[in-house]
Design brief:
The complex is a heterotrimer of chains A (221), B (104) and C (139). Chain B has 104 residues and is an all-alpha fold. Chain B has helices spanning 2-27, 31-57, 61-90. Chain C is mostly helical and 139 residues long. In chain C, helix 1 (5-27) packs antiparallel against helix 2 (36-53), helix 2 (36-53) packs across helix 3 and helix 4 (65-88) runs antiparallel to helix 5 (103-134). The chains are: A mainly alpha (221), B mainly alpha (104), C mainly alpha (139). Chains in contact: A-C, B-C.
Amino acid sequence: MNPIILIVILAFLAGTAITIARVRGVFVAAMLTGIYSLLSASWMLALDAPDVAFTEAAVGAGISTVLMLSALALTTNREKRPDRIAVIPLMVVLMTGSVLIYVTLDMPLMGDPNAPAQVHIAPEYIDGAHDYHIPNIVTMVLGSYRGYDTMGETAVVFTAGLGVIMILGGARRVMSWQERQQKRREEGELVLEEVYPLPDADEVDPEGEVHPIDDDGGGAT
Amino acid sequence: MVVDVLSWILLLTGGTFSVIGGIGLMRMPGFYSRVHASGITDTLGAGSILLGLMLQAGLTTVTIKLVFILAFLFITSPTSAHALVNGAMTNGLKPKTQVQEGEE
Amino acid sequence: MSHLLIPRVITKILLPFIMLYALYVQFHGDYSPGGGFQAGVIFAAAIILYAMIFKVVEAERVIKPGVARALMAVGLLIYLGVGFLTMFLGGNFLDYDVLTHDPSHSQHYGLLAIEFGVGVAVAAVMITIFYSFVDPLRD
């Protein structure tokens, strides 16, 4: 693969990431994360990793954008403007980034045939896939050699679903929809406050105020 | 040879239409005309590129897959453009009918 | 709701193909890129598309929220069940070789089974998360 294509895609990725960090409209940021996922999917495809690219395109650009938009329907569409630059998080991010870059200096080059992964593990996987007649080595590694890891991943996905149910969907069992609607009307606020106590009125900046959502029957549109 | 030339003509046409669509997306005034410009990229640009690739591939399974992609694209991209414009219209965005002063 | 007419018609045409593609990705994972994770997400995307273009209530008639929640656990249990089945048949945990007499076939069957579990779990989790997010917006 031509390295110029990779560099161009990586430059686009960096530009998108910076734009996401700088833009204030949350809807714009959500759409940009979808674009970021699509770009990284094409980057992974350029690196000959179609399985990962497939996952990234389906999960990142497809589902998570939709989920992010439906989550945004629960909150405001403007990000609160920070009053000052947060120094300590910036330092932490910079230090972590420089440590990561420093560590990559010790790593083997991309596609290096003498890299430890290519010398010891990869030949065994390739032989195994050949012996068992499974053309897609990724599936073979994922299911056979790394079956426990994949089981852990499935458990992680399951736990993520459980977490969302506990935070957002748990109210459904104890309170019927009419009751909750009634409660929402009385307080004029969102259901989210069951989880997050809303800040006092003087702490909220005027633009970042939480507005009740208009009920226009169309699902999540 | 003829097939090669034909496919390259189609590929270049598709590329040109994509660039035109991109320029239109940046330069057109107003939301609706921008969607119209991006529609060029979706249908003519991508369609010509896929046709060119089909000629390059010959009669293989790749061509059949490309035919499916083309059919899918021809159904979905006008629909998505329609949904976009429809959403803007129902939310009350008025089409820009004349160029405002101070803009190009 | 006449302004949703065209998306609804197109969605009706496309949904079977999306689901068919999800099944292809699910069961063809041994031979081409794909597998349970991707297939589950594509299947969930079909349901979510249906819920967005039609009403969420309509989608909940197809897959009830309780069913989706149960399937989350069922998917993980299928995976674990394959592991325990291989132990029961005398092998190690997730050692597919004992499933049939031919090791190659065993690997294929084992992979298909665990990928199916992964696919069910992922699809159910995605649908459940979507239902949870749109639940407070219900009219």
